[in-house]
Design goal:
Layout: H1 11-26, H2 28-39, H3 59-80, H4 96-117, H5 124-139, H6 146-155, H7 158-166, H8 172-186, H9 192-198, H10 204-252, H11 258-278, H12 297-307, H13 326-353, H14 363-374, H15 385-406, H16 414-425, H17 433-451, H18 469-514
Helix pairs in contact: 2-18, 3-10, 5-8, 5-10, 8-10, 10-18, 11-12, 11-18, 12-17, 12-18, 13-14, 13-16, 13-17, 13-18, 14-15, 15-16, 17-18
């Protein structure tokens, strides 16, 4: 009798086990989906009995996971951020690292200067620097640059340079002149000015320092050119790469979908409340939700993405699968908040002024500029919306009166000015009806755009949002592009989590129906 009750103990059972293994080999995608589904936590994770305690993770495994996440974040940044560039690291002005670096560099250059001032001069440090310069120049060459490679190798022949130094025949100035000329040949046009400045430096030590500074810039140029070159190819493969890296991280940290699960569950609950509000349970004879349509994964995902635009970043952890884009979602959230204030101010201003200013060219843009400038620090803790709105009210009233006078209309009376200022200041109130109306219409537009994101044409802008249509559409395009890429990468994880959420919802609904 077999000691392990789970182990097949008949030839038929063994064969069935082999068939199951063969099935996973024949369909590797299914195997991956199964791993994802098993890794995805259920809605009630705490209620699930654990067969064994959590596995301890070694420091090495954590380091490997961190490295994988870092690489994934870098690839994601290159793909999503079209303006991504590698920039030289800049240490804080008064930091210890900068002080140590400056001291070491000064000691090195002082030593070089002292050697060159000896009689006869000592060229040990200078020759080492020429060797580094040679390596840098050769690293900039492409395989087809055979002629340039031969020139660099011939002129910067370190063995020959050492012999010349030993015999007192070394001409450093001539070698440096060749280096500057070669740098001018290899550098990007944007560095021509730096190369020109090198030719105006006549002291050897400052010239060496400047040469290495420009070489560092050239390295950045080469690296950024490489990034721009691989971006199209990376875009094709980054989704699979990010998914693979996240799966590796998930296998080491099984709890890495906890916040995602809560986030999607909240979105499902929100939609369920809306559904039951529209289709009350008592509207059906069987006590169910009547003719309410069933929740679908796409609708829940879209609702979840909309919730990110109202996220409390200070007090709530951001969902794991969108964590790399948290700063981008924060930026979009801030832009929408500013646009909400702008749209509300424009609406109350046009309502107060009537048709007189509705078709005046440039008036809406002036108001938008005023609001944008005064809301520039909206994300700062010290920002006061009430104070800014008071200033906006003053500026808007002045602009309205100026525009009315220019077009032959009577300016506002003091009473009308006071009313308009009060309406603008009331935007700061959380229960402001106009602000809530504009906000709901902006959210509806974004929701419609998410739903129709595969169509070329943008959905129609709701009424009242005409003055801010261009800004809203720009935000929508950026937002939906971000969402669609995230869906493309993490859709298997969403499907796994949502399958459990929907199954749970159906079981609860069935239980209520039986009651």
């Amino acid at each position: 009798m077999s000691q392990n009750p789970e182990k097949p103990h008949s030839s038929e059972e063994k064969w069935s086990g082999l068939e199951g293994g063969q099935e996973s080999l024949d369909d590797p995608d299914r195997s991956v989906r199964e791993r994802i589904r098993q890794s995805a936590p259920g809605p009630h994770r705490d209620d699930t009995p654990k067969s064994s305690p959590p596995r301890l993770v070694s420091v090495q495994e954590l380091m490997e996971a961190a490295k994988g996440v870092t690489n994934m974040a870098l690839a994601h940044e290159i793909v999503v951020n079209g303006d991504f560039q590698i920039k030289p690291a800049e240490l804080p002005e008064h930091s210890l690292e900068k002080k140590v670096r400056d001291i070491v560099h000064k000691a090195f250059w002082d030593c070089l200067e002292a050697q060159l001032k000896e009689d006869p001069p000592t060229y040990d440090h200078a020759i080492k620097l020429l060797g580094e310069i040679k390596e840098n120049l050769l690293s900039f060459l492409l395989p087809g640059h055979a002629s340039l490679r031969n020139q660099i190798t011939e002129v910067l022949d370190l063995d020959l340079i050492k012999q010349e130094a030993a015999n007192g025949a070394l001409d450093i100035s001539k070698l440096v002149e060749f280096v500057i000329g070669m740098m001018g040949t290899l550098c990007a046009p944007a560095r021509d000015e730096e190369i020109k400045k090198l030719k105006d430096i006549h002291e050897i030590v400052p010239l060496f320092r400047a040469i290495f500074s420009v070489l560092d810039l050239m390295k950045m140029d080469i690296a950024n050119f490489a990034v721009s070159s691989i971006r199209p190819k990376l875009m094709q493969q980054s989704a699979e790469y990010e998914r693979k890296k996240f799966q590796e991280f998930l296998e080491k940290q099984p709890s890495s979908l906890d916040v995602v699960t809560d986030w999607l569950q909240e979105a499902a609950d929100d939609l369920a409340k809306l559904r039951y509000k529209k289709f009350p349970p008592h509207s059906s004879s069987d006590g169910a939700a009547g003719g309410a349509p069933a929740l679908c994964c796409t609708a829940i995902q879209n609702q979840a993405y909309l919730k990110l635009l109202k996220w409390d970043h200070m007090n709530r952890p951001f969902p794991e699968v969108v964590l790399m884009d948290q700063s981008r979602f924060q930026e979009i959230q801030l832009e929408l908040e500013q646009l909400l204030v702008t749209g509300t101010v424009l609406l109350v201003t046009f309502s107060a002024a009537g048709a007189a200013l509705l078709d005046v060219p440039g008036f809406a843009e002036k108001i938008k500029t005023i609001v944008k400038v005064l809301l520039a620090g909206m994300h700062l803790p010290s920002f006061s919306l009430k104070e800014s709105l008071a200033t906006i009210g003053e500026k808007v009233c002045a602009e309205v009166n100026s525009c009315l006078s220019q077009h032959g209309f009577a300016p506002f009376t003091a009473e009308r000015e006071s009313v308009l200022k009060g309406q603008i200041q009331a935007v700061a109130n959380a229960d402001n009806a106009i602000c809530q109306l504009i906000d709901s219409r902006m959210q509806k537009f974004l929701e419609n755009y998410l739903t129709s994101s595969h169509q070329k044409a943008l959905p129609a802008v709701p009424g009242g949002l005409g003055p801010i249509q261009r800004e809203l559409e720009e935000i929508a395009v950026k937002y939906v592009r971000l969402v669609n890429y995230n869906k493309m990468v993490f859709s298997p994880y969403y499907d796994a989590v949502l399958a459990k959420i929907l199954a749970k919802g159906e079981s609860q609904l069935a239980g209520k129906s039986e009651e």
